[in-house]
Amino acid sequence: MGNKTPPPSPPPPPPPSPKVLPREWRNGPWGKKAGDSEFVDKYKPYKANVELRCMLYGPVGAGKSSFINSVDSALRGKIAGRAATEGIGGKSITTRYKAYKIQKGGPGTHYPFVFNDIMGLEKDAGNGACVEDIKLAMKGHMKDGYTFNPISTLTENNQDYNRDPSLNDRVHVLVCIIPGSIAGLQADSVRKLREVRLAARDMGIPEIAILTKIDEACPEVGKDIRNVYKSKHLKNKIEEVSGVLGFPPSCIFPVKNYHSELETSDDTDTLILSALTRIIQSGEDFVNDL
Known about the structure:
The chain is α/β, with parallel strands linked by helices and 290 residues long. 33% of the residues lie in helices and 12% in strands. The chain is globular, with a radius of gyration of 22 Å.
């Protein structure tokens, strides 16, 4: 019997897709740090006696307080740590409604915007900030220093209830902080985040989303932050956040918060200041339309 022809060997598997694309899928802000820094430095609200109020919300451990510290660090050129960070055991370390001003120049002078930090949202009922409290804060009814109660909302007879909020008390731009390192958003968390978004929409308050922990989410970005807009993973994560929460991709800004660094970095500052510029522009447009 003649030799049988051996069956053809299977084709080799295709090469793995590169984690980093050959070119940026969004034009990065590289080289624009000086321009964004100048914009923030010269910014003055058009309406007199108004401080632009930016309120941060998001899941526990997303990096809300770290983002405030990172903006402070980028603007002052040194690592800041005024807002307490790191939840313990998955619980929010932020328990009070607190406004943070960033020093500009000498003591007693500040940038004309404030960041309000709130207790993180948790997926379980009875834990984290109540969505109704966030709505009251957006309307200006919550006084600075209010202690959040996960099982009870702020009521009109509470001493921290502001019965007659001014324009300055209201929130002018809402900033949703989402960690890029999480595998996926929990259904209960999504429900709460969307409820806040819908309330902001009904009030006409603009929203910006910040994708944090990008260096943890993508090792290639951890090696070189300039890979942020070449990273396939982060591109997919931004598309996921957009699809689940409804943010247009152009309103989602990836940033790396300062965490263990001893000095600031131009590239890290560039991403932070790009996001801050958009936050200020959105809030200013809202105030001017009132």
